Amino acid sequence: MSETHYPLHTALSLAASGVPVLPLRRGKVPFGNCTRCADNACGGRPIMKTPGPCRCPGVCHAWAAATTEPAVIVSPAWAAAWRRAVCVGYHPGGAGLTVVDLDDADAIAWARTALPATRTVPTTRGQHWIYRGAMRSVNAVRPGVDIKSTMSYARYLGPGTGVMADLPDAVRALAMKEPSPVRPAPVGAVVAGAGGGECPHRTPAYLDRGIAMAEQRIAEASSAVHATVYRTFLAVLSTHGRCGCLTDTHVARLFAAAQAKGETARHCTEAWANALTALGM
């Protein structure tokens, strides 16, 4: 019998092997926020983001609710969801995995020439290629190709075939988007740096001042540190993130400032990823 008929049995089996699971409803999507968590009332983030301080026992935070705890999976809080579930979802990043979701025949043909062979699972229209190792999730890295790993979920469609390979650099490189092209300025507008000058975002003094201000903003936070870190990351990325001027050194400075206020490295990574997603980067 397939996992579609017995999703709870499949979920428990996956959880026992260390794969965080969650029920998916019709349309293969997670269950929406409950009334206590709607509109961020719980103090967490909207569905599909990190739940923050929320302690909701249900499944209403999508991938962030995925768990390997059998007691949670069979709990009364999850029971109604399993009764309505049509299949099992899992959090690849939570299991140390990355799923390259190939949505059509053209995407599969590309993968066969561009990526190393690994475990393959057939989907409705294409294939999931599963690698050992986690990374940032990014949609539409190329036509018909999504990457599902951290802060994402995938539908469980069976164990697949083939030997799972380690996550290759070729997949990690897909998540590195090119800087957005410069848009033409409106007629009559004064363009900064016009006349041969370089982009002001690449001016060392301008960027250094922006990073220093961000560090100061985080350091001065006396409450709501989580929210301050996220908003600061968002501000930095909105100003400096589209020109390719930020370096690993700049990001490390921001993370260090946040960790000095008690934030974990994991929260810094998630807050940065959330900011990137919010800006469509």
Key terms for this structure?
281 residues, alpha+beta, 3 domains, 9 helices, 9 strands, globular
Classify the secondary structure makeup into a structural class. alpha+beta
Largest beta-sheet details: 6 strands, mixed
Point out poorly predicted stretches.
Answer: 1-5, 178-198
Order of helices and strands: HEHHEEHEEEEEEHHHHH
Write down how many β-strands occur, each being a DSSP E stretch of 2 or more residues: 9
List the total number of helices: 9
Quick one: overall form?
globular
- How far the N terminus sits from the C terminus, by CA atoms, comes to 42 Å
Number of domains: 3
Give me the Rg, rounded.
Answer: 21 Å
**What proportion of the residues is helical, as a percent range?**
25-40%
Instruction: Please indicate the percent range of residues in DSSP E strands (runs of 2 or more).
Output: 5-15%
Overall mean confidence score, pLDDT: 82
